[in-house]
Hints:
Number of helices: 19
Structural class: alpha/beta
Distance between the termini: 17 Å
Largest sheet: 9 strands, mixed
Strand content: 15-25%
Shape: globular
Amino acid sequence: xxxxxxxxxxxxxxxxxxxxxxxxxxxxxxxxxxxxxxxxxxxxxxxxxxxxxxxxxxxxxxxxxxxxxxxxxxxxxxxxxxxxxxxxxxxxxxxxxxxxxxxxxxxxxxxxxxxxxxxxxxxxxxxxxxxxxxxxxxxxxxxxxxxxxxxxxxxxxxxxxxxxxxxxxxxxxxxxxxxxxxxxxxxxxxxxxxxxxxxxxxxxxxxxxxxxxxxxxxxxxxxxxxxxxxxxxxxxxxxxxxxxxxxxxxxxxxxxxxxxxxxxxxxxxxxxxxxxxxxxxxxxxxxxxxxxxxxxxxxxxxxxxxxxxxxxxxxxxxxxxxxxxxxxxxxxxxxxxxxxxxxxxxxxxxxxxxxxxxxxxxxxxxxxxxxxxxxxxxxxxxxxxxxxxxxxxxxxxxxxxxxxxxxxxxxxxxxxxxxxxxxxxxxxxxxxxxxxxxxxxxxxxxxxxxxxxxxxxxxxxxxxxxxxxxxxxxxxxxxxxxxxxxxxxxxxxxxxxxxxxxxxxxxx
Length: 508
C-alpha cells in the first residue's frame, strides 16, 4: 500500500453542491446529509458553503439576501442566462441559493403527479454550471467541491474541461457522493445546450447510447474521488446488480472509490429530547420500559389501533420497490394472523398504496396504513414501535434504521448496502446484536425473520430488552463521518480496494 501523506491542519474551503437541504426543502435522505455533513465539517473548523437551487418551496427564499445579480455566459449561446445568488443559512452554514425562475420556480422540485419535468436535464445542467460560475462572483475559492448524485454530476466534468485552465480553480479537487445509483440522470444531448463541451467532445464514458448522456456517469468519470454512503454499498457498486448496470464505470474508478457511513442527526432524533413523542426516555431499563410503553400507547391512539400489549411493527418509507414493499405485501396478511400490530406510514406508488389500504380495511384492529409524508408521525412510529421493518431491495445507507436504533426499536433489515454495515444480526452474533437481518430477496425470507423477532419478544422478554439497550448504545455520529470525509479529501483515507487487500491477505 502506498505511503500516505499526513493530513494538513489547514482548514479547507469546501463547496458542497446538493439539490436539496433539510430545513430548507426536502424530498429524501439526501437533504438530511446536505444539512448534517456540512454542519459537521464546519464544526471541525472548515469553511463550508452549500449551493442548491432556489426552488419555490425553499423556506424563506423570497426574503433571502441577494449576494449577486448576474448571468451565466456560454460561448455558443446567443444570450446569457440571468440568475441571482441568494444567501440563506442551514444552522451556521451559509447556503447559496441559485435563483433562476425559469428553471426552479415550480410547484415541486423534480416532478409533478409522478411525472418528471421534461427539461430536468437542462435544469440541472444549468445548476451544475451556475454552481461553479458563482464561486468567483461571490468570492469563494474552494479547495474541495463536493457533489452529490446525478443532479450535480456535470460539476466535475466542467471543472476538468471548461475550467481546466482557470487559475481560480487551479487547486480545486472534486468529489462525487453516490446516494443512489439507480437514478443516473440520463437525458438527450438536446438538453445540454448550456454545456457545449459535453456535446462537442462526446466522451464515450459518459454516454448511455448514441443520443443520451448520463450526468451520474459524467460525475463518476471526472471527479477526483468517488464516494458511496456506506462501505458495503461502495463494494456493491463494483457489481452489475449493485450498480444498476454501471459496474464498468465504478470498476474503472475502483482505486478512487470510498465508502463512508452516514451519521445520524441526534439533535433531531433523540429519545431523551424529542418534542414529537409522548414521553422522553433514556437507555436504562426503567426509563426505557416506561418511555416505550407510553410512546406505544400514543402511537396506537394516533393511528386508531386498539391499545393492547402486543408487539408493534413500524415502517416509514417511500412506497417503492426499492424499499421492499413488494416483499412485505405477499406475506402481510399471513403475519397479521399473529397477535401483532403493524403501522406503515408512507406515500408513493398508488398501486402499492391501494393494496396496503385494502389490507388495512380487512384488519382494522391490527394494521394501520397512513398514506402521507408526516415527520412528527415518523418520530412517533420510531419511538412507539418495538420493531422497525426495512426489507429494502437495495439501500445505499439508510437513515431509518439509525433512527430506530436510537429509540431502542429493533430494525429488521435485508443484508444490503448500509443496512448490513449498521445492524448486527441476532442469529449471527446474539451478544452484541441490535436487530435482525435476512439475505434472500423474497417474501418468505422476510416472513421468517418477522416470526423470529416475534418469538424473541414473546418468549425471551429479558433478551429483547437487552437488545434494545444494545441498539441504543450504538452511535453513528456525524463528526466521525466528517473526519473520514476530511481524510478522504486529503488522501489519508483508504479506498475500498485498499481496505479489501489486507483482508484478503489475512484470509490467505
